[in-house]
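Task: fold both queries, return tokens.
Query 1:
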Amino acid sequence: MRLTIDRGEIIHHAGFHRLSPAVRHGAPLLVGPGDQAGRCGWEAFFRAMDGLGLAAELGEDGSARFVKG
């Protein structure tokens, strides 16, 4: 897994793995095609990520989790 705050890298990872940005309970996440809850645009997603001081931990298998950066 690689840790990043680079917006372009996060967007590329999401697109490559068919994930969409979402915010649930104020926290950012990347969700699959069948998961509609909390889906939002990239601006709201990155606002939530920045507001909580998070970095994305991206896995080559398409996983993504957000940790204090």
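Query 1 returned. Query 2:
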Amino acid sequence: MNQAVISTRSSNWIMFVVAIATCAFAGCSSEPIKEIAVSENSSSDTAPAVSLAEGDWPWWRGPNGDGRVLEANGPSTWDAQKNVVWTAPIPGRGHASPTVVGDKVFVATAIDDEERQIVICLDRKTGKQLWEKDIHSGSFVERGHHKSTNASSTVACDGTNLFVSFLNDDAIWLTSLDLDGEQRWQTNVGNFKAKFGYSASPVIFDDLVIVAGDNRGSGFLAAVHRGSGDIVWRKVRPSMATYASPAVHSFDGKQQILIAGSEIVASYDPKSGEENWKVAATTEACVGTIVASDELLFASGGYPGSETAAIDAKTGKVAWRIDQKAYVPSLLYHDGHVYLVDDNGKAYCWKADSGEVAWRHRVGGKFSASATLAGDKIYVISEAGLTTVFRATPKQFEEISQNQLGDESFASPVIADNHLFLRIADSSSGKRMETIYCIAEPQPTTPAVEPKKVETETGE
């Protein structure tokens, strides 16, 4: 055979092997995902009005998407027996938080050895399982990280229907169920090249469900119609491995979708998906969800950098930035201050207008769950299942209690109608088991009023 041909074939083979090795190490890029404009795929269907009640926790980070329920009064102390209203076993593994709406509790989970991704419904008063629905069977994607699961996205509920997102068969699928567990529709929102799985939760806005799909292949942000399941719009985002859920906040009456990651913080119009602004901030990989005051938004991340930034929501200009971070846990804004317990168990309170430290305190432990505020109490749970309750005050770190359940927790605390819902795992028996705990302290009751005795005069 001609030596030149042999040489060419050898060179081609070497280039092929190098390409495969590079792909395996760094991740192959794919064609950019196709953008969809509103006019191309607008739906004439109508979605039912969002119908929720006070005391519901309808989606990731609660009714306002910021981890706060200001009028609630959650419990301060508990253990495996004390102040436990009910417990419910949850099969498999997942980091999704419970969703509490009406008389039901919904939770996503995955049974890895059977490759099943499911949604479970519990009775809110008793914890009794009402139904279980398989969403996907087979085609699991390698998680790639011990903190990742095949069910890390929290279910969203509009009061009438459920919306749950899963990574399956190299794509992000959004599925809608009714409250009895019957599937209404299922949509492939976009292909997804995973590095460490998928964690973003869906967000409801008007007739839309907003889904983030940041990934190494071709990142995207999309809006799906709640009624039809049609993709109303989809925008290309940078192709980086990042994991944050979007948030919708209003500034001067204008709604904005906000998301951190891919070395930027960006704002989008929720109705059209058009970008309002973007600014270089945080780092490549972010997990926490943005929170906001009336004028500023606060974002933190992540990997490989370390930064927390406050950004003017109208202009997209950075107001301040510091080199401290929360990678996985989300920040919490309240009353002019930003609170967090970072991944390594350090608690901070910063002045929201400047980033100046009001106080810092070492809680200890490792943290992945986000903080939840009820009234003036902040709840943070460690990866080892220890919940620390402390006061939301800038004066000093004021611990109220510490409460241990199980030996593992990654899901964030949920407060609904003064009840605390925790997703806890326990391996003390030699077999890992997950449980939803419903916890509440006895509420004071008004003492019964004894009828007054009326003295009557009797004549003789």
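Both queries returned. Flag for query 2: The radius of gyration is 24 Å.
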